[in-house]
Design goal:
The protein is of the alpha/beta class and 596 residues long. It has a six-stranded mixed sheet with strand order 11-16-17-9-18-19. A three-stranded antiparallel sheet has the order 8-7-10, with helices on one face.
Length: 596
């Protein structure tokens, strides 16, 4: 009754109850609120359509097939299940009669051309029916790039933001070749990029700095890559020339001997046994506890499937009672050695101006307590809530504590304008009258993290949280800076700082996927120091990464391949970076060898 609702018989007796299942379905189908639909989706799991078995088409259309010498009669749903490489081979080996060639020659040529463009930009591992929602930002961008290469246009300005995201070094050359092809057609290509290989391949480089946020915004060097290298003002140039570099750790943590199947409390390993999800080839993958492990390999080799689809979902199911079903595997041993799982990604800490670094870190509660304890506050009867911009009392009611007003631009992005009543301060005048060391609550929010860290130096509970944010390279950010203005890298480092400021049990597992996305080499150096702090506290770090500067610093390396898609899904090498660099069948090894 509770789940399915009243039957007709029960309703005739006056017992009317819709049922939770019917109510959830109704809300999901009819609600105009995306938040409501998202809440309902938490209780839903994707399932193949029972009528078409996930093939999307009716039987009469699936009955139309192409005769192939190797694959036999192939329907359209079978063809789109191929990856780009397989589809190219399939098209090339179809045998047409003379009459058929006349009809489909142009079609085959166009299909082949488009598939080759996808291969050119390093996406040969993607299946043609891959859902766009499962693609990374870099993959989506490269698909659009392949479309543009195929258009053959000239005189076009192309602007790309971090196109090398999620790309292995072996595929980077293909991407650079694609840029040069566009340039040679008479186009202009502008790429925002941190990858050193891409920077060195550019015709012209504009280097911004010298710092980040208010400390940056100047062009400190411009010219050819060689001119950037010889410019003393350019930090990027110093990394390119080798004057500055990310150093290899002096010592690595050596894990104990791994005994497969050992599920004791001190085995020192977490092992996924018999993993077969997506393209994984029934592999056993072991991660040493208390170490910094990197999962590397060719794009599409199965890294995210192993760490995100199987391990993360299994951990969330154990520790957070998640409804997500882990990918196919036999079992996971060693989970009794950890007590918490934390995923640190580059997703925003909030999507409105109301969220900011000081509220996310938890320091704002202590700052509000301090203001509430001031003599003037006590005389006026102001409590903790008076200094919150989320509740009525001391906030500006015209903007409801946002400091800005949102203007709906309908078909364009929303625009935020400063509140004309409080002039962006968020609070009413009575609240702003309360000051600590000459600063009111709004002026404190306008401080940078470095300034505030000195300002609250004698208040340990506030100073610790602020100092930690400064240590991860965020000292330039304002305490009250709106979350929707933070970059992905800034949001990620804020999450790391939040974890560092907490009292750690030392038995936490941290999962990171491509944490270097959008980070400069100097930021990567800072990031590595933070990760090493977490590791030195006894925690376990598992990082999916292509950046060799990060890979070379790991204690343990699991390199996947040998290729992407169906030709991947195996562990080609595992061990310390020095050991993996000697493996001839590893695509990562030849690049790693150079860095070591």
């Amino acid at each position: 009754l509770v789940f399915n609702g009243s039957t007709k018989e029960q309703m005739s007796k006056g017992l009317k109850h819709e049922g939770l299942l019917k109510q959830a379905q109704r809300l999901h189908e009819t609600s105009k609120s995306e938040v409501t639909r998202q809440n309902v989706r938490k209780f839903m799991n994707p399932k193949s359509c029972p009528s078409c078995n996930g093939k999307r088409l009716r039987p009469e259309f699936l009955s139309v097939t192409l005769s192939h010498p190797e694959h036999g009669d192939t329907s359209i749903d079978q063809f789109v299940s191929f990856n780009v490489n397989e589809a190219l081979k399939f098209i090339a080996s179809i045998k047409f009669s003379k009459e058929e060639k006349l009809i489909c020659n142009e079609l085959v040529s166009e299909i082949s051309k488009r598939l080759k463009f996808l291969k050119t930009v390093g996406l040969a591992y993607l299946t043609l029916d891959r859902k766009s929602s499962t693609l990374s930002g870099g993959e989506s961008q490269r698909i659009r790039l392949a479309t543009q290469i195929g258009s053959g246009l000239s005189g076009v300005l192309y602007v790309l933001d971090e196109p090398s995201i999620g790309l292995h070094q072996s595929d980077n050359k293909k991407l650079i070749t694609a840029f040069k092809d566009l340039r040679d057609l008479g186009n202009t290509v502008i790429a925002v990029e941190h990858d050193t290989e891409t920077i060195e391949a550019a015709d012209y480089v504009i280097d911004l700095g010298p710092g980040a946020g208010p400390r940056g915004g100047d062009i400190i060097a411009e010219g050819t890559p060689q001119q950037i290298k010889s410019n003393d003002k350019s930090i990027t140039g110093k990394y390119l020339s080798g004057e500055l570099k990310i150093n290899i750790p002096k010592t690595r943590i050596v894990p104990p001997t791994n005994i497969l199947g050992d599920d004791s409390f001190d085995s020192g390993w977490i092992t996924i046994e018999g993993a077969t999800e997506n393209n994984l080839q029934k592999i056993n993958a072991s991660f040493p506890v208390g170490c910094f492990t990197c999962v590397s390999g060719i794009s599409g080799s199965g890294k995210s499937t192993l760490v995100d689809d199987i391990l993360r979902k299994a951990l969330f199911r154990k520790f957070h009672q998640s409804k997500e079903i882990p990918g196919k595997h036999d079992r996971i041993t060693g989970l009794n050695q950890i007590d918490k799982v934390v995923v640190i990604d580059q997703s925003p800490i909030g999507r409105s101006p109301r969220s900011n670094p000081v509220t996310y870190s938890g320091a704002f509660t202590d700052i509000r307590k301090l203001f509430a304890q001031l003599p003037t506050s006590k005389i006026r009867g102001y409590g903790l809530g008076r200094f919150s911009f989320n509740v009525k009392g001391g906030r500006c009611e015209h903007c409801r504590g946002d400091g800005s007003l949102k203007i709906d631009m309908h078909f364009l992005s929303d625009v935020y304008v400063k509140c004309e009543v409080c002039n962006g301060s968020r609070y009413d005048q009575d609240t702003l009258d309360i000051t600590y060391k000459g600063k009111n609550i709004s002026e404190v929010l306008e401080m940078s993290i470095d300034e505030a860290s000195l300002f609250f130096a004698r208040i340990p509970q506030i100073h610790l949280k602020l100092r930690t944010m400064g240590e991860v390279g965020l000292g330039y950010i304002k305490l009250g800076q709106a979350a929707n203005t933070l970059s992905g890298g800034e949001a990620q480092r804020l999450k790391l700082a939040s974890e560092l400021s907490k009292k750690s049990t030392g038995d936490t597992i941290y999962l990171l996927d491509e944490p270097t996305t959008g980070l400069h080499l100097s930021d990567i150096d800072t990031l590595l120091k933070v990760l090493m702090k977490l590791r030195d506290a006894g925690n376990t770090l598992i990082v999916i990464e292509h950046n060799i500067d990060v890979i070379k610093c790991a204690d343990w390396l699991i390199d996947m391949g040998p290729e992407g898609g169906p030709n991947g899904g195996a562990i080609v090498a595992e061990g310390c970076p020095e050991f993996v660099s000697k493996k001839s069948d590893s695509a990562t090894a030849k690049y790693l060898k150079h860095y070591l």
